[in-house]
Amino acid sequence: MKKIVVIGSLNMDLVTEVNHLVKPGETLSATSFSALPGGKGANQAAAAGKLGADVHMVGKIGADDYGDELLKSLKQASVATDGIQIEKNGSPSGMAFIQVSSTGENSIVLVNGANNNFRPHDLDAIRGVIEQGEIIILQLEVPFETVVMAIDLAKELGKKVILNPAPARYLPGELLKKIDLIIPNEIELETLTGLPAKTENNIYTAANRLLASGAGKVIVTAGDRGCYCVGEGTREHIPSEKVKALDTTAAGDSFIGAVAAGLSEGLTERKAIDLAVKAAAVTVTRKGAQPSLPHRGEVEDYFS
């Protein structure tokens, strides 16, 4: 089995359940509140770990109770935490303020905290962890210069690089050429390319723009519409599994972690995506980020 290294963010998700997402100027009473481990990087690591992959997490947390909870949650998901550094300058662990509506929609505001202090020079101390991995997963919730250096290091070491470009931002062509697999959602695809991504044809056109800019392969996640896979001369729509969604917060992270887990155990890319579609479907039937991520047996049982 190939080892996976996830480089990215760790956040404590502060989740309020509401009847509808709050509008500008509106004050709204929540129906519940919870504090749950999250962060795109940590979620993707936990998703892969729960599915049986050999995963190491790389990132930074604060010296606080939330940081302790984040470490504990990853260890419970069978994720190695030897690449996680503790910030000594007083910055708190990252936090995400999340609203989840009664229909499962969400909105998120990030307080980056210690994630913002994960700098390129920090990679030197955990180079050995990165060297162990064969599949490297990154997002954009830590400083961009750290992401760029991590990708450069991964390619120097001959690793497969998977990028989840979230939060969305412009990516230069010289960086895209180093990405083996990029996994945006529709909104992120629009930001990356400047093209609409509302319809299937829109998505294929925009994804081909990323390929033309140098990306190796593109998988666009599209919520309950499933995903769109685009490679050189190939394209395919894979529909979602039909379930009743309670909370979509970690759906994309579940999908990405599952794709990596499948690839790490030698599945074909298509079979890895099938696993990811099923894992994401189970995820949205549960509440929370990491607590909603399923173990392999739970995915198999759900669709048996």
UniProtKB/TrEMBL annotation:
First-tier enzyme category under EC: transferase
Subunit structure: Homodimer.
GO MF assignments: ATP binding; metal ion binding; ribokinase activity
Annotated Pfam families: PfkB
Location in or out of the cell: Cytoplasm
Amino-acid positions noted as binding K(+) in the UniProt annotation, renumbered to this chain: 247, 249, 283, 286, 288, 292
Name of the featured protein: Ribokinase
Active site (catalytic residues): 253 (proton acceptor)
Reactions that this protein is recorded to catalyse: D-ribose + ATP = D-ribose 5-phosphate + ADP + H(+)
Pathway linked to the protein: Carbohydrate metabolism; D-ribose degradation; D-ribose 5-phosphate from beta-D-ribopyranose: step 2/2
GO terms for biological process, alphabetical: D-ribose catabolic process
Organism name: Salipaludibacillus aurantiacus
Upper classification of the organism: Bacteria, Bacillati, Bacillota, Bacilli, Bacillales
Cofactor: how bound: Requires a divalent cation, most likely magnesium in vivo, as an electrophilic catalyst to aid phosphoryl group transfer. It is the chelate of the metal and the nucleotide that is the actual substrate.
Keyword S-adenosyl-L-methionine among record annotations: no
Family to which this protein belongs: Belongs to the carbohydrate kinase PfkB family. Ribokinase subfamily.
InterPro entries reported in the protein's UniProt record: Carboh/pur_kinase_PfkB_CS, PfkB_dom, Ribo/fructo_kinase, Ribokinase, Ribokinase-like
Entries under Gene3D superfamilies matching the protein: 3.40.1190.20
Protein purpose: Catalyzes the phosphorylation of ribose at O-5 in a reaction requiring ATP and magnesium. The resulting D-ribose-5-phosphate can then be used either for sythesis of nucleotides, histidine, and tryptophan, or as a component of the pentose phosphate pathway.
Ranges where the Carbohydrate kinase PfkB domain occurs: 1-295
